[in-house]
Design goal:
CATH architecture of the largest domain in chain B: Orthogonal Bundle
Largest sheet of chain A: 8 strands, mixed
Bound molecules: iron/sulfur cluster
Number of strands of chain A: 24
Radius of gyration of chain A: 26 Å
Number of helices of chain A: 23
Number of domains of chain B: 2
Distance between the termini of chain B: 17 Å
Strand order of the largest sheet of chain A: 6-7-8-3-9-10-12-11
CATH topology of the largest domain in chain B: MetI-like fold
CATH superfamily of the largest domain in chain B: MetI-like
Number of strands of chain B: 0
Helix content of chain A: 25-40%
Order of helices and strands of chain B: HHHHHHHHHHHHH
Structural class of chain B: mainly alpha
Oligomer: heterodimer
Strand content of chain A: 15-25%
Helix content of chain B: over 70%
Structural class of chain A: alpha/beta
Largest interface: A-B, 39 and 28 residues
Chain lengths: 687, 321
């Protein structure tokens, strides 16, 4: 049997045996991947998308079993033995994983791990295999490929490691490549370049592709067709535009609306949320998987549930996304009654001047903060954005007192707090709270919420009566949408979103003036992230506390902040009111970040600025502009030698760049002299 | 270059440890009750003769002077004179016994290292299966048996029931160990019994961790054969913790020899130490204990070197991009 499909998945189900029951991880999946087609699979964590990818390779843990058919060019892979599968794996179907670092063997050289692929599948001798490996690395625009081949994985950057994994996958020119969240662990500016290369090589080698991600924006960029998965099922599949513009399934619509995106700000819209969380599904559970969280549910919708072709090539299990019998929930914008309405300035709450934080010793000094000065008004949100290693978390830590700065002053309400928390007064400890990325780790797992939230109340607010505390705790729990019944739950009994709510409740329980939020939503699924963001917005508004909100995600920062500060290598690139920062004139790095953020709406996708290389070594002393090594607008030697001036663009909008303001706009991107796509790609990365 | 500085630092540390330990040993023996001269001369000696002996042995000198003399002798290879066997230079007996013990330890190592690594890897690869359970049970059972129990069991089986090996491991007078290698088997086996469970469990757990790692999954999904994945990709990484454990136990092995050697009457460092303690032969005790300490320190050092050699993440630290 021959047809145009490279891969046909028919009624594929995967279940895991556990001690008590069988968990159904993937059920009844029917999908086809055509020649040269790129299929995107999107879903939140626990939706079974990764299980699906391993099932396609017939690689399941010993307690897992699959039924159905996976036809690869007509051959059913599920009936093959592990030995027979060897001829397919890495040869005709290749995979790339989320975490490149752990996917490479730490004790073998990069070259060795590449060579063995062709030696096994093609029978190449060592020399020929190495030649093929070096060529494959060069295909991925890696500078000095022969030298890189001699290195060990830990000696190259994360972006480079992922390029190596992709090169490895492409060595045998597979018919199908499966990419499982390949850019999730990378910074956005690195992600852009990797996505570009993937797209280019897919064309070059006529491959089909399955791209799995939780990020709608990324899926958007790379897919021709998109399948939406929820609790193990594909609930909707269709071509990219249809899925975004005319989703039929309520889940698809809800998911798209959850994502913070360009132009969506707290002053105008409330993020859509999906109540509840993704529950584990037992094999016995049938019917609509979304029923417990769906807004559009009515009496007889479940009876009609089933995968039907709604339009040509567009399948959906339910068509009630815009059903009118159940009206859309009102999504009122946050009412932001800013006191003083812009004219009279708010008082300054926090003033940071010339802050430095160094790690390490004299030989290897990491300059995590390299002279940062900024101030924060009462009742406002300062978003701090930048890629990993830019010093944003260090800044949060020095403010919250987890560490003392090396040099510089932090004034909080007039008190110098450039000291660690141990030396701070109880009032300061009470007035500055911290919310972490990983709520699980900051909540003591053996304590009940009553104890977790009650402790700071007792210690820092001095409320001795247990009854009094309990009353307040219930109050605050209700505010974060956790009912009274949560009072006696332990942290381990909560889902990820609930834990973060509990952490928020704890932070607010003692009415602080400033809360440092360090990537508070990065570990959460988009639907949960949206509800936590809404909650943080509401509480801020209500309590008048100020936030320092740290995130790598510009969309999130843009949603929640009043002011934005963009950081690179321990320094500030740009600072200003939110609307001014995300619009021109902007710092070249801000521009690159903005353009790199994958957008949810396919019609809004812009041509991204591609930065060469990866952020330089933070141990190097910088004499000029920190961004000079990667800047696409670099003027010349002046950028390397002279620190850029702080140029005031408006009332409180500053850009640190040598370029004159009138050249820092959008149009500048297309001017001659700026890098075009291919040119920048040709600029290969050095290790 | 960084490696070299690291090496020099480590070596300096080794020497420092040895010096500190030697002081400690010297002091400990110092505070042991009883007067050395009295011990040597017996209870009936007159105070004058004791005083004279003290004088001639230099026992009245201040502590630092005595330590200096003792340590200086050690550095020059002079271990001093035995107290119990008067007039016998410790050197003449000590090194022969040490040699015996080293041979015994190496034999034991030769037995238990390949055995426990092999079965540990096997159990790790077959984790959760019957093979794994059998190996793990056996490991636990042998680990729970002290050396003297397993030694007696071995003697009963091989010497008494089967009579293929001698009950004791004594070297007949006038012969050397080389002609009597079979006497090594039982003591080495009983050491193997103790170490097997320990090392194989370690090996198993590190193998399980490695086999569940992302890079093993990646190697499998690259289409590499299972055996190749296990030997090329998994083993090297899984050996690292085991090597540390084996190295760290070298010192313990020598200490543990005391029991085994005594049980079998094997003429090695262990039984020498024991008899030195019994006869309060202070210079001999000091030599034995210091030597065991030195083995401890050096084996840890060598282990670290090997670990660094096998682990490129440490080897090239600082040379990254
Ligand atoms: S069947 Fe009902 S509950 Fe399920 S997705 Fe459709 S509308 Fe929602
Ligand atoms: S100062 Fe130079 S290198 Fe830095 S951002 Fe401006 S143009 Fe780019």
């Amino acid at each position: 049997m021959t047809n145009d499909f490279v891969l046909q998945i028919k009624n594929l189900s995967v279940s895991y045996r556990t001690l008590n029951d069988a968990v159904s991880a993937v059920r009844n999946i029917n999908l086809n991947v055509g020649k040269k087609e790129s299929l995107g699979i999107i879903g939140e964590s626990g939706c079974g998308k990764s299980t699906l990818s391993y099932a396609l390779m017939d690689y399941l843990p010993s307690n897992g079993s699959s039924t159905g058919e996976v036809l690869f060019r007509g051959e059913n892979l599920l009936t093959k033995t592990q030995k027979e599968m060897m001829a397919f794996r890495g040869n005709r179907i290749a995979m790339v994983y989320q975490n490149p670092y752990s996917s490479l063997n730490p004790s073998l050289t990069i070259g060795y791990q590449l060579d063995e692929v062709t030696m096994f599948h093609r029978g190449y001798k060592a020399k020929k295999a190495r030649k093929a490996s070096v060529e494959a690395l060069a295909d991925l625009y890696i500078g000095d490929p022969a030298g890189v081949a001699r290195r060990y994985p830990h000696q190259v950057s994360g972006g480079m490691q992922q390029r190596i994994c992709i090169a490895m996958a492409l060595l045998c020119r597979p018919d199908l490549i499966i990419l499982d969240e390949p850019t999730t662990a990378l910074d956005v500016t690195t992600e852009v370049v990797i996505l570009d290369i993937i797209g280019e090589l897919k064309e070059k080698y006529d491959m089909s592709m399955i791209y799995i991600s939780h990020d709608i924006g990324v899926i958007n960029k790379v897919s021709d067709r998109i399948a939406v998965m929820y609790r193990g099922e594909v609930v909707e599949v269709g071509d990219q535009r249809t899925i975004f513009k005319h989703p039929e399934h309520p889940y698809t619509r809800a998911l798209i609306n959850c994502m913070p995106r360009a132009g969506v700000v707290k002053e105008e819209v409330r993020l859509n949320t999906i109540p509840g969380y993704v529950a584990r599904r037992s094999a016995a559970d049938t019917g609509c998987p979304f029923v417990d969280r769906c807004e559009k549910r009515n009496a007889d919708c479940e009876a009609k549930y089933g995968m039907i072709e709604r339009a040509s090539g567009h399948f959906a299990a339910c068509d009630r996304a815009y059903a009118e019998d159940v009206p859309d929930r009102k999504r009122a914008a946050l009412k932001i009654p800013k006191v003083g309405n812009g004219s009279a300035k708010e008082e300054i709450l926090l003033e940071i001047s010339d802050l430095y934080k160094y790690y390490g010793n004299q030989h290897r000094r990491v300059r995590a903060l390299d002279g940062v000065s900024v101030s924060l008004e009462k009742n406002s949100v300062l978003g701090v954005v930048g890629e990993s290693g830019c010093g944003k978390s260090t800044m949060g830590h020095t403010i919250s007192g987890l560490m003392a700065p090396t040099k510089g002053k932090i004034l909080f309400d007039g008190i110098d707090i450039s000291i660690s928390w141990k030396q701070r007064t109880p009032e300061v400890l009470r007035d500055i709270q911290l919310i972490f990325q990983n709520p699980g780790r900051s909540l003591n797992p053996s304590f009940t919420l009553e104890k977790i939230i009650g402790r700071p109340m007792k210690k820092l607010l001095g409320i001795q009566s247990r009854e009094e505390r309990k009353k307040r705790i219930v109050d605050i729990l209700q505010k974060v949408d956790l009912g009274e019944e949560y009072l006696y739950r332990k942290a381990t009994q909560l889902s990820g979103g609930e834990k973060q709510r509990a952490a928020v409740a704890r932070a607010f329980s003692i009415a602080p003036d400033l809360i440092v939020c360090d990537e508070p939503t990065s570990a959460l699924d988009v639907s949960v992230q949206a509800s936590v963001l809404n909650l943080l917005g509401d509480l801020q508004n209500e309590s008048g506390a100020a936030y320092i909100f740290i995130s790598h995600d510009l969309n999130v920062i843009n949603y929640i902040s009043d002011y934005i500060m963009v950081m690179y290598l321990g320094r500030i690139c740009e600072y200003g009111r939110k609307d001014e920062v995300v619009g021109p004139p902007y710092h070249p790095y801000t521009q690159a970040l903005l353009s790199a953020v994958p957008d949810v709406d396919p019609s809004l996708i812009r041509e991204p600025v591609r930065l060469e290389g990866s952020p330089p070594n933070p141990t190097r002393k910088i004499t000029g502009c920190p961004f000079a090594g990667r800047c696409h607008r670099k003027i010349g030697p002046i950028c390397d030698t002279t620190p850029p001036p702080k140029v005031q663009a408006s009332d409180d909008h500053y850009i640190m760049c040598h370029l004159p303001l009138d050249q820092l706009g959008d149009a500048e991107l297309d001017k001659p002299g700026n890098l075009t796509k291919t040119e920048s790609l040709m600029k290969t990365v050095k290790a | 270059m960084q490696f070299l500085t690291w090496l020099i630092k480590r070596l300096g540390f080794v020497i420092l440890t040895l010096v500190a330990m030697s002081m400690l040993i010297f002091l400990l023996v110092e505070v042991m009750p009883g007067d050395v001269a009295q011990t040597v001369l017996g209870q009936s000696a007159t105070p004058e003769s004791v005083a004279a002996l003290r004088e001639s042995m230099g026992l009245d000198d201040p502590l630092p002077v005595r330590y200096g003399r003792w340590a200086g002798g050690f550095i020059q290879g002079d271990l001093g004179e035995s107290l119990y066997m008067r007039g016998v230079q410790i050197n003449t007996i000590f090194w022969r016994k040490v040699g015996h013990s080293v041979i015994l330890a190496l034999t034991a190592l030769l037995f238990y290292v390949p055995l426990s690594i092999f079965f540990g890897v096997l159990a790790g690869v077959k984790a959760g299966k019957l093979t794994d359970s059998i190996i793990s049970f056996f490991g636990l059972a042998t680990m729970a048996l002290p050396e003297f129990v397993s030694g007696i069991l071995l003697i009963t089986l091989f010497s008494v029931k089967l009579s293929i090996l001698p009950i004791t491991s004594v070297i007949p007078i006038g012969q050397s160990l080389w002609g009597n290698l079979h006497i090594l088997i039982l003591p080495a086996l009983s050491i193997t019994f103790v170490m097997f469970g320990y090392v194989s469990r370690m090996q198993r757990s590190s193998m399980v961790t490695v086999m569940n790692s992302d890079y093993i999954r990646a190697a499998t999904l690259k289409g590499m054969p299972r055996g190749y994945v296990i030997f090329r990709h998994a083993l090297r990484n899984a050996l690292l913790p085991t090597i540390t454990i084996i190295g760290m136990n070298m010192g313990w092995l020598f200490g543990g020899l005391i029991v085994v050697e005594t049980l079998f009457g094997f003429p090695g460092l262990g039984s020498l130490t024991l008899s030195a303690i019994k006869t309060r032969d202070i210079p001999l005790i000091e030599a034995c204990v210091l030597f065991i300490t030195a083995i401890f320190v050096f084996s840890t050092f060598l282990t670290d070197m090997l670990y660094v050699y096998l682990n490129p993440r440490i080897r090239f630290k600082g040379g990254d991009a």
